[in-house]
Amino acid sequence: MKRLRFPVWALTGMVAMFMLASCAPLTRTSGKGKVRRTEGTDSEQEAGGLHKPLTFEEDAWSLVPQILARIIPPTFPDRDFMVTGYGAVGDDSTNNYAAFNDAIAACVDAGGGRVVVPAGTYLINGPIHLKSNVNLHLAAGSYIKFGVNPDDYLVGSPEFKGCVQVRWEGVWCYNFSPLIYAWGEENVAVTGSGTIDGQMDKYWYRWYVDGLHTDDRVVLRKQGMDLVPVEQRIFGTGHHLAPGTIEFYHCRNVLVEGITTRMPLERTIHPTYCENVTIRNVNVQSGVEAAQNDDGIDPDSCTDVLIEDCTIHNFDDGIAMKAGRAKEGWLEHGGRACENVIIRRNILHGEHNGVSFGSDMSAGVRNVFIYDCQFGVDNEQGYVFAVKSNCDRGGVVEQIYVRDITVDTCRSLVHMVTDYKGVQYDPEEHPYPPLYRDIYFENIRCRRAKNYGIYLSGLPQKPISGIHFKDFIIDEAAVARSIENAVELEYSNVRINGRDQD
Strand pairing partners for 165? Predict the structure, then answer.
């Protein structure tokens, strides 16, 4: 069976990565309420033998400078290619598809540089495909509007009916090209102070509001579970899986900086299987509330990612850690964990989750550091920190470190569920429970949680374990704590509704 297309460099280190768990095995609870991993299962391989929970005293935060030292934004030759020099017209009506891609081709031929979009409103009926050593730079006053004819995004190989390979909601397939797309490139960027408008509100939202995507989503998810060869999963014409907005696949040295996005399609900024990614000073604006699908920044099976100084307001997840869906996402089937992610100095005030893990996390998420962020300042945040998956997916979320967080108003501050979308454990139908462990919260301040302060809902077969709260204060919460099937919880100076929690 043919597998996914990987650039040669992307295979580096995959043998080591294979050691990280894909499907979290069952655990048992001893009489003392401690989690004991079952001898002889692959539970000890969940972190490739590297699983060593770090306590506050051991100071996992010492890893942050090491990760940051590896995250180096790409640099580009000092050459500019003005899109207007290749026929682009910023009059809000001329189709600039050819001009933009011609400018990129000229930049590549010259050995790289900046493709500059000057002030003006540029309509593009079709995608921008970035190449290595190209920085798409949006100058002040520039505004890119992407057209709304789906057929314009079928620019791939005729073999796949014009579709390109993407990961759509955690499952690989061939689909409409994302608005801005790169596959297997090195040193790529989208920078500047201009705006990218996906025009979700002009057409694409109907695919969600009218439920046109529902049948295709069901088919794709089943194909992923059944491990149907990716080359046979062709959507595009006649289907309704909307393309993403800015998506990088199998890329190294990625930078997104300074831009504003509005009315995004699907996921706004979605690096997948990428290494060395910097996303900073980005203003992510919301899509259509009724459609909801407008995730802000979704690192998906990436390594060494920095997300800093961004402002995110959307109706779905603000920042979401992803790592593939169900069987296809498992390491033995080519999946890859998402790890070594730094999230700092961001402001999130969306209607749904602030920072989430899942629900596509089957290859595992670990070593994520979140600090100096604000939530729910101008608008009520949904769940500030959400971990969500179910027993179709397996996977591990572990070694997550959160500190120095300010929240004004939210529905729930910490929200962890193992039955996402109502999928309950069943040894025959849903036998792959996820595992959440070793998650640390320190110096957290919240004014009001309208529903729950802390909500943990694990499974008897695999309890949530090792959740630590230190200097954790919620002034007002409708319900302080709801804990089910969670063990090895630690509280140190935790006060909710003015009462100490222990």
Answer: 174
Contact predicate 216/241, CB 8 Å: yes
Whole-number Å distance between alpha carbons of 415 and 263: 27
CA dist 125 and 425 (Å) reads 46
Rg (CA), the chain: 22
What structural domains and CATH numbers belong to the chain?
Answer: 1-52+317-502 (2.160.20.10), 75-304 (2.160.20.10)
Q: Are 400 and 81 in contact (CB under 8 A)?
A: no
Tokens linked to 174:
């061939």
69 dihedral zone (left: phi>0; alpha: psi -120 to 50; beta): alpha
* Cis before 359? omega within 30: yes
Please name which of 241, 314, 303 lies closest in space to residue 272, comparing C-alpha atoms. Answer: 303
Distance CA 215, CA 207 (A): 11
> How many angstroms separate the CA atoms of 351 and 379, rounded?
7
Burial per residue of 54-70, b for 16 or more beta-carbon CB atoms within 10 angstroms, e otherwise: bebeeebeebbeebbee
**Residue 443, helix vs strand vs coil:** strand
d(CA 134, CA 111): 9
**From first to last of its 502 residues, what are the pLDDT tens digits of the chain?**
334 444 544 444 443 333 333 343 333 332 222 322 222 223 323 333 334 444 554 689 999 999 999 999 999 999 999 999 999 999 999 999 999 999 999 999 999 999 999 999 999 999 999 999 999 999 999 999 999 999 999 999 999 999 999 999 999 999 999 999 999 999 999 999 999 999 999 999 999 999 999 999 999 999 999 999 999 999 999 999 999 999 999 999 999 999 999 999 999 999 999 999 999 999 999 999 888 888 999 999 999 999 999 999 999 999 999 999 989 999 899 999 999 999 999 999 888 899 999 999 999 999 999 999 999 988 899 999 999 998 888 899 999 999 999 999 999 999 999 988 888 888 888 889 999 999 999 999 999 999 999 999 999 999 999 999 999 999 999 999 999 999 999 999 999 999 999 8
Contact at 8 Å (CB) between 133 and 108?
Answer: yes
At position 370, the amino acid (one-letter code) is I
* DSSP category for residue 26: P
Contact 279, 310 (CB under 8 A): yes
Beta strand 195-197 with 186-192: parallel, antiparallel or unpaired? Answer: unpaired
CA pair distance 495, 471, nearest whole angstrom: 8
- pTM > 0.70: yes or no: yes
Pair 313, 285: CB distance under 8 Å: yes
